[in-house]
Design goal:
Layout: H1 7-21, E1 35-41, E2 45-54, E3 57-67
Antiparallel strand pairs: 1-2, 2-3
InterPro entries: DNA/RNA_pol_sf, Rev_trsase/Diguanyl_cyclase, RT_RNaseH_2
Pfam family, one: RT_RNaseH_2
Protein name: Reverse transcriptase/retrotransposon-derived protein RNase H-like domain-containing protein
Amino acid sequence: AAFEWTEECEQALQHLKKALFEPPVLSRPNDDEVLYLYLAVASEAVNAALICETTEGQKLVYFTSKALHGPE
Protein backbone atom coordinates (compact mmCIF):
# COMPACT_ATOMS: atom_id res chain seq x y z
CA ALA A 1 0.00 0.00 0.00
CA ALA A 2 1.38 3.38 -1.00
CA PHE A 3 1.49 6.21 1.51
CA GLU A 4 -0.71 9.17 0.62
CA TRP A 5 0.03 12.62 2.08
CA THR A 6 -3.37 14.19 2.63
CA GLU A 7 -4.50 17.66 3.66
CA GLU A 8 -5.22 16.23 7.12
CA CYS A 9 -1.59 15.05 7.33
CA GLU A 10 -0.36 18.49 6.30
CA GLN A 11 -2.53 20.22 8.90
CA ALA A 12 -1.30 17.85 11.62
CA LEU A 13 2.33 18.52 10.62
CA GLN A 14 1.82 22.30 10.68
CA HIS A 15 0.13 22.05 14.11
CA LEU A 16 3.06 20.00 15.44
CA LYS A 17 5.64 22.43 14.02
CA LYS A 18 3.82 25.36 15.60
CA ALA A 19 3.77 23.61 18.99
CA LEU A 20 7.48 22.79 18.78
CA PHE A 21 8.76 26.17 17.57
CA GLU A 22 6.57 28.55 19.58
CA PRO A 23 7.36 28.40 23.28
CA PRO A 24 4.32 28.37 25.56
CA VAL A 25 3.34 31.51 27.40
CA LEU A 26 4.25 30.89 31.00
CA SER A 27 1.78 32.00 33.64
CA ARG A 28 2.25 33.30 37.14
CA PRO A 29 0.31 31.31 39.73
CA ASN A 30 -1.97 32.97 42.25
CA ASP A 31 -1.57 32.20 45.95
CA ASP A 32 -4.81 30.20 46.04
CA GLU A 33 -4.06 27.98 43.02
CA VAL A 34 -2.99 24.37 43.42
CA LEU A 35 0.38 23.57 41.82
CA TYR A 36 1.41 20.23 40.33
CA LEU A 37 4.95 19.12 39.56
CA TYR A 38 5.22 16.61 36.71
CA LEU A 39 8.49 14.72 36.29
CA ALA A 40 9.74 12.63 33.39
CA VAL A 41 12.90 10.71 34.16
CA ALA A 42 14.88 8.50 31.79
CA SER A 43 18.48 7.37 31.54
CA GLU A 44 19.09 10.13 28.96
CA ALA A 45 17.27 13.12 30.51
CA VAL A 46 15.26 14.57 33.37
CA ASN A 47 12.32 16.90 32.67
CA ALA A 48 10.10 18.83 35.07
CA ALA A 49 6.99 20.92 34.48
CA LEU A 50 5.29 23.06 37.13
CA ILE A 51 1.59 23.38 36.34
CA CYS A 52 -1.15 25.43 38.00
CA GLU A 53 -4.75 24.32 37.94
CA THR A 54 -7.22 27.09 37.07
CA THR A 55 -10.89 27.22 36.17
CA GLU A 56 -9.75 27.39 32.53
CA GLY A 57 -7.64 24.24 32.82
CA GLN A 58 -3.97 23.55 33.42
CA LYS A 59 -1.41 26.27 32.65
CA LEU A 60 2.36 25.93 32.46
CA VAL A 61 4.23 27.95 35.09
CA TYR A 62 7.77 26.63 34.56
CA PHE A 63 9.52 23.94 32.54
CA THR A 64 13.08 22.65 32.65
CA SER A 65 14.97 19.83 30.98
CA LYS A 66 18.44 18.41 31.55
CA ALA A 67 20.22 15.96 29.29
CA LEU A 68 22.26 13.43 31.24
CA HIS A 69 25.77 12.43 30.22
CA GLY A 70 27.51 9.39 31.60
CA PRO A 71 26.97 8.61 35.31
CA GLU A 72 25.10 11.80 36.22
